[in-house]
Amino acid sequence: MISVRWRKVLGDLWLNKMRTLLAVLAIAIGIFGIGTVLTGYSILTHEINANFLGTNPASAILYTENADDTLAGAVESLPGVAKAEPRRVVTARILVGPDEYRRLLLFVIDDFNNLRVSTFKLERGDWPPTDGEILIERSALPIVKKQIGDTVIIQTPDNGQNHELRVSGIVHDPGQSPGDVDNIAYGYITINTLERLGETRALNELRIVVDGNTKDINHITSVTNQVKDLMEGRGYKVSQIEIPNAGKHPHADQMDSLLFLLEVFGILALILSSILVASTVSALLAQQIRQIGVMKVIGARTYQIAGLYFGLVLLLGIGGLAIGIPAGMWAGRAFAVFTANILNFNITSDYIPHWVYAVQILVGLSVPLLAAAVPVYRGSRITVQQAISDFGIGKNQFGTNRIDTFVSRMRGLGRPLLLSLRNTFRQRSRLLFTIGILAVGGATFMSAINVGESWSNTIDVAMNARHYDIEVKFSQPYPVEYVDKTVLAVPGISEVESWEQILAARKNSDGTDGISFTLTGVPPATEMIAFPIIGGR
Amino acid sequence: MNNENLIRLTGVTKTHEVAGGTFHALREVNLQVNPGEFVAIIGKSGSGKSTMLNMLSGIDRPTSGEIWIGDTAIHTLGQDQLAKWRGRNVGVVFQFFQLLPTLTILENVMLPMDFCNTIPTNKRKMRALHLLEQVGISEQAYKLPALLSGGQQQRAAIARALANDPAFLMADEPTGNLDSHTSEAILQLFKGLAASGKTIVMVTHERDITQWVSSVVKLADGRVVKGSGL
Q: Please, what is the Cα angle at A181 between A175 and A182, to 5 degrees?
């Protein structure tokens, strides 16, 4: 049977229904924010492993000529190399409408039945594609607008002719960023099909996956350099080495940014809820000071009074958790699905680990308790004399400190306004709570506005730095004068600039190649770009 | 003399520091109340009546002097020690009843037993009902205070004061908010309690209080001007 004192707590909560509801909702919002982030994080972390890392993403790509299975076999026998596979990626374009092309990355696979690196899976249709057929990545379907059995028109850089390929199936390649987000299509063909498209019959990449820690860049670099030495020892010329962001999905940073934003807003919501709880408890205690006095008169000790109000706060926390946890689970799962679409993932399991619940319960109970600690401490330690006196000589009455004196000396204001002003400063801790709530609430609102504005502004800055409308890439170098003259002859073109772009790699101190990056050569007096100079000249 | 239920104040002074200097609420008060006495403290507003009652019930502490309630020197106790002592030894009755509004009358009476743990859990309800019957409102046991008349609430407050079977009852103008008929009934109740062995000190403005009490103490400007001195 519940004891009398706890019946009082329940009665107080019920008596102050609106205030109770407000505090419970405030805690629930904080827990919702935290729960959304943690649920989304836990599901996505798991799915990154299940999806992206499950494809055996390449630790490094070595560019050469005529990579084949023999070379791959030799490389796989090296210590530190788990898997190796020859590939070729051809940048082509695909006809998606009348005289409308989209960029197409064609992955040329030597043996579809022996995928080892950067693997992908058939979702529907036939596997493997026969010669003259193509597999399309599912996220590119909104761009390509074709179905299984349809014919697609493709142009490769070498001959610029239209070639027809039949769509044999749809695949899911979690290693690629979504085509519909990046406005790019992905296709998968055999080496014979590549030849039909007018390209040379050769695979120019050797993709490797290292043994051990696939996220250790130093380990990857070291193993890659051993592979390079082996290849060069066998007469292969390694023109470039590309080490993708180790073990990281191409759009993982976007996911991190979203999670970070959610985390910040979750924390702000939690701070807001803490202040609301402190304010609620403080107001409740102020309202019940006389009751506290009476309870002390009939024998209650300080710890018993504090226990009652901490119990009340715990009940508020439990109420907040009861709403916040399910809401956070739902939103977190929705966020995971949303992010999975951005990252081209499948959610294979929306299981939420126990630690997510544990953290929410810990936060949902401890933060309100901490927030209420000061008001409860002060309220429960009040003497009976202070608690039951309505009048008399008190230390905390208006007019007993400098601020009150200053406020009371204000002149030229109407009496109703003066009354309001003086009453505002009468309960200073309540004033601080109110200001705190408004400040954190305002900060939360302004943060949301600022993030939105900053996002727009960043895009504007990026767009303003580029003073051109169209960028055309050639499959091979052409004389600048020839290109400029030809392009300027096109009606509607007012300016043209020719740039050169190469893939470069930074040399490590030991002479080996480090991480590769794109190097763009522009005319010294270029008017096409105007990036802000952060430092130097 | 048996000191067990004796109240004794020796040289009790209570001062407050105010802007204009030191305000003396009580000045060198000496008082003795014998076991089973029903004492009324009277005096004008500001004479120190309530301050004295607060001293006796351990609600307030003297600036100087000694207060002995039975064998306990309550002027030496800390706040929590006082709360514990008070819960077991003193029942306090207020002018405005001070029942907790979210608890039923029965629960209000059970609350002191809950805080002090003096009565076994399974006997608390029965005792509370018995006390309510004693003060004549057992049929109101399961109602909230707001549904009771002033007189009924004061009876409930007296039942609560008796919850832990204290030896002393301190009442601060217990009839100040009641009509004359109800006041009489309450005073009768106190008289009966005193007759049963409780030591009762009551601050009052009631006229003709002498017919109810065993002695009267009159205060003026913080001094005992008439009544039970040492």
A: 75
Say whether residue A515 is in contact with chain B using an 8 A CB cutoff: no
pLDDT in tens, A386-406: 888 754 334 556 666 777 777
Least trusted range by pLDDT, from A117-126, A238-247, A456-465, B23-32? A238-247
Contact B59 A297 (CB under 8 A): yes
Write down the residue that tokens 């009790």 correspond to. B12
Smallest Cα–Cα separation from B207: which of B42, B63, B45?
B42
* pLDDT higher than 80, residue A241: yes
Instruction: For residue B11, give the H/E element and its range.
Output: strand B7-18
CA distance B83 to chain A (A): 5
Query: Would B210 be classed as within a structural domain?
Result: yes
Q: Residues in chain B, how many?
A: 230
pLDDT of residue A400: 67
Quick check: is A235 in a domain?
Answer: yes
Q: Please give the Cα distance from A26 to A433 (Å, whole number).
A: 14
Please tell me the predicted confidence (pLDDT) of residue A394: 43
Residue A272 lies in a domain: yes
Which residue from B minimizes the CA distance to A302? B80
A267 residue type, one letter:
I
Task: Determine the pLDDT at residue B131.
Answer: 93
CB contact under 8 A, A299 and B87: yes
> Looking at chain A, which residue has its C-alpha nearest residue B121?
A3
CA distance B162 to A107: 91
CATH number of the domain at B81, please.
Answer: 3.40.50.300
Average pLDDT in chain A: 84
CA A158, CA A106: separation in Å to the nearest integer? 13
**Contact assignment for B94 to A290 by CB distance below 8 Å:** no
State which H helix or E strand residue A18 sits in: helix A17-47
At position A373, the amino acid (one-letter code) is: A
Q: What pLDDT, on the 0 to 100 scale, is given for residue A501?
A: 83
Q: Where a domain ends, among A221, A242, A263?
A: A242
Terminus-to-terminus CA distance in chain A, angstroms? 79
Tell me, what DSSP letter sits at residue B213? Answer: -
Q: Considering the domain boundaries, does residue B117 fall inside one? A: yes
User: Chain A, 271-310: which have a CB under 8 Å from a chain B CB?
Assistant: 290-291, 294-304
DSSP state of A54: G
Structural domain range at position A483: 467-530
Q: Are residues A216 and A120 in the same domain?
A: yes
Using a CB-CB cut-off of 8 Å, the residues of chain A touching B87 are: 298-300
Cα gap B55→B82, rounded to integer Å: 11
The structure tokens listed for A502 are 């190469």
Using CA atoms, how far residue B214 sits from A261, A377, B35, B40, B191, in Å, is 76, 43, 11, 8, 9
What are the tens digits of pLDDT across the range B68-83?
998 899 999 988 888 8
ipTM associated with this complex: 0.90
DSSP A312-364: HHHHHHHHHHHHHHHHHHHHHHHHHHHHHHHHT---------HHHHHHHHHHH
Give one DSSP letter per residue of A386-403, joined into a string.
Answer: HHH-SSS--TTSTTSSHH
**Two structure tokens written together for A305:** 């009074």
| Whether residue A331 sits in one domain with residue A255 | yes
Query: How many separate domains does chain A show?
Result: 3
Chain A residues touching residue B25 (CB < 8 angstroms): none
B84 and A294 within 8 Å at the Cβ level: the answer is no
Contact A300 B115 (CB under 8 A): yes
- Is the model's pLDDT at A189 over the cut of 90? yes
Exposure string over A52-69, b if 16+ CB within 10 A, otherwise e: bbebbbbbbbbbbeebee
How far is B84 from chain A, CA to nearest CA, in Å?
5
Q: Do B102 and A12 touch (CB under 8 A)?
A: yes
Closest CA to A41 of A363, A451, A364, A355: A355
Please list, in sequence order, all residues whose beta carbon lies within 8 angstroms of the beta carbon of residue A181, skipping any fewer than 6 positions away.
Answer: A139, A251, A342
Mapped onto helix, strand or coil, the DSSP state of residue B217 is strand
Is the same domain home to A299 and A332? yes
